[in-house]
Amino acid sequence: MEEITRIKFGAVSQPKAVDSSPSRRLDVALRNLAKGAQQGTHKSKRTLTGCITNELTKAAAGDVTSYAVGKKEELERIAASAR
Prior knowledge:
Blueprint: E1 2-9, E2 12-19, H1 22-41, H2 48-61, H3 67-81
Antiparallel strand pairs: 1-2
Helix pairs in contact: 1-2, 1-3
């Protein structure tokens, strides 16, 4: 997985693609899963337990409607354009 970081050369700031460490990849994935489950309960009558299972099944299937998978795809697309 690649991410972007800002590198400053003088007064110019450029995005640069960098590789993520395995522990950071896991942390970001867990954070996105939790955030997606939390957002699923917002303005909804679904329980947090139901939203967690829904988010996990969508992420396991690689469904783009999952918040975590969508964020991962977006991050990798931005990193690919920064190469």
